[in-house]
Amino acid sequence: MASVVLSEAEKLYIVHGVQEDLRIDGRGCEDYRCAEVETDVVSNTSGSARVKLGHTDILVGVKAEMGTPKLEKPDEGYLEFFVDCSANATPEFEGRGGEELGTEIANTLYRVFSSESSIDLKSICINPREHCWVLYVDVLLLECGGNLFDAISIAVKAALFNTRIPKVRVLEDEEGSKEIELSDDPYDCIRLNVDDVPCIVTLSKIGYRHVVDATLQEEACSLASLLISVTSKGAITSMKKMGKGSLDPESIFEMMETGKRVGKSLHIALQKILDEEESLGTSRQKVGFLG
Amino acid sequence: MPLDHRRVRGPEESQPPEVWAAAGGAGEVPEEEDAAPRDPCALRPLFARAGLLSQAEGSAYVELGGGTKVLCAAWGPREAAEPGAAAAAAGGGRLLCEFRRAPFAGRGARLRPGSAAEREAEREAAAALREALEPAVRLARYPRARLAVSALLLQDGGSALAAAISAAALALADAGVEMYDLAVGCALCRPPGPAAAWMLQPGEAEERRAAARLTVALLPALNQVSAVLGGGQGSPPDAWAQALRLGLDGCHRLYPVLRQSLLRAARRRDAAAATTA
């Protein structure tokens, strides 16, 4: 992963600051950086979103394609995640350098979405055992400025909210052969219910305390962090320890409580922004990459 | 792995019959047999033996009651292959972990060795293994060196990753690598249903049906958690905290067994050295 090299004195400065609930950019331990979210930024996708969280910049595109349902779940569609670490973010990602991080993030996303309640997969099945929608979620890392996982999960949720899947009908004639008919109206489409899509909250242990939304500098001071995915109702759907260090059991319990609290307010803020953007309709001026 | 072309290989695409049996409604019957309520705190019997491979510097074999069998080998400090990468690791050594599933390890159809899905799953398990072991090993004592651990899952009877963590820690200790503590892994799962309680060390069938799964690893002497990996149906933090407590308690109870096996391996080695001397 992208990282910065810090001297011992710099690290000490950050650790002591965190102890006093004052971080290098003036935030408290449970504050997020200012996030920018814009949906519908790439017109060739079914849904897309771009999230900028401090210096972390993520672009997510969702493409819906028709496929066959998985054998174990014949009446459900499914999601596929791909994470591309662009060499624009850091030169370490050049060639195959970003592959390891990419698969790690993709695996984490699979685990976060493994819960049946996170997204209604039955609604994207067209006819059982034969056709379903496959949502290809492609994540592009444009810039890494710490706290990748949280930013990616916000972007994925926003992109899924923005996703519009065309409505199709299955017609069956007398001989039993099936035909798929696409609706003529381009605005006749299914939307996904993203109310229960979880967001990831990463809590990095620095000194005796933990912080949310760590910057690159703070990540360099943290030996271990806990990644928690929280739904808007405050339920935890997955967790994972990351990093070289280990954690005290008591601090894990504290982190889970903080994660739930912070995650809930994150969901409220995100949903508000998404609804607001939605209400502007087509009159909205798109900022895109010129903002 | 090279393919043996003399063997008759199955068709390119094949499907396990269980999938279709379950759809017919008749497949569920044998699975319901083991649905009898069991004590959620009960641990499955664990058998551990260290130092059984003669070629590796350290090795361990862990078997769980339900049929999970893991064989682990540790290859002690070697010079790092790429000096650039070793220098970047702040002077400390590097721990390389590998996790392999035998082609016949799982239930149902044999997975093609080297298939993309298989590789992904193995790589993820290897990363989890490394994160669980790194806090236990004194890597700062091995500058510019690499330590390699490889775990081979012979049979998957549930709780495979947890067994692999315990076996790998045992193999490293058996190799004489300096460690702070052994890492002990323990798996849990929660069956579907609103009032279902978390169960320790689920079997393969329980794990497959579970609504949520969790694997924890603990360094018992230091009381530090070195791995937490889990997911599934959402539940409030209290429920997860309770599960975590149950899992850590399970780790504490498994610890003496692992220590005993390590002691026994050391005694065996002493005896062997005495007879050859």
Automatic annotation (TrEMBL), chain A:
It is found in: Cytoplasm; Nucleus, Nucleolus. Residues 32-166, 196-261 form the Exoribonuclease phosphorolytic domain. Keywords: Acetylation, Cytoplasm, Exosome, Nucleus, RNA-binding, rRNA processing. Its main location: cytoplasm. GO terms for molecular function: mRNA 3'-UTR AU-rich region binding. One of its GO terms (biological process) is exonucleolytic trimming to generate mature 3'-end of 5.8S rRNA from tricistronic rRNA transcript (SSU-rRNA, 5.8S rRNA, LSU-rRNA). InterPro entries: ExoRNase_PH_dom1, ExoRNase_PH_dom2, ExoRNase_PH_dom2_sf, Exosome_comp_Rrp42_subfam, PNPase/RNase_PH_dom_sf, Ribosomal_Su5_D2-typ_SF. Pfam families: RNase_PH (PF01138), RNase_PH_C (PF03725). Coiled coil: none annotated. GO terms for cellular component: cytoplasmic exosome (RNase complex); nuclear exosome (RNase complex); nucleolus. Transmembrane segments: none annotated. Component of the RNA exosome core complex (Exo-9), composed of EXOSC1, EXOSC2, EXOSC3, EXOSC4, EXOSC5, EXOSC6, EXOSC7, EXOSC8 and EXOSC9; within the complex interacts with EXOSC2 and EXOSC4. The catalytically inactive RNA exosome core complex (Exo-9) associates with the catalytic subunit EXOSC10/RRP6. Exo-9 may associate with DIS3 to form the nucleolar exosome complex, or DIS3L to form the cytoplasmic exosome complex. Exo-9 is formed by a hexameric base ring consisting of the heterodimers EXOSC4-EXOSC9, EXOSC5-EXOSC8 and EXOSC6-EXOSC7, and a cap ring consisting of EXOSC1, EXOSC2 and EXOSC3. Belongs to the RNase PH family. This is Exosome component 7. It comes from Mycteria americana (Wood stork).
Automatic annotation (TrEMBL), chain B:
Its main location: cytoplasm. It is found in: Cytoplasm; Nucleus. InterPro entries: ExoRNase_PH_dom1, ExoRNase_PH_dom2_sf, PNPase/RNase_PH_dom_sf, Ribosomal_Su5_D2-typ_SF, RNase_PH. Residues 1-37 are annotated as: Disordered. Residues 43-178 form the Exoribonuclease phosphorolytic domain. Gene3D superfamilies: GHMP Kinase, N-terminal domain. GO terms for cellular component: cytoplasmic exosome (RNase complex); nuclear exosome (RNase complex); nucleolus. Keywords: Cytoplasm, Exosome, Nucleus, RNA-binding, rRNA processing. Signal peptide: none annotated. GO terms for molecular function: RNA binding. GO terms for biological process: nuclear mRNA surveillance; poly(A)-dependent snoRNA 3'-end processing; rRNA catabolic process; rRNA processing; U4 snRNA 3'-end processing. It holds the Pfam family RNase_PH. It comes from the Eukaryota. Belongs to the RNase PH family. This is Exoribonuclease phosphorolytic domain-containing protein. It comes from Mycteria americana (Wood stork). The lineage of its organism: Eukaryota, Metazoa, Chordata, Craniata, Vertebrata.
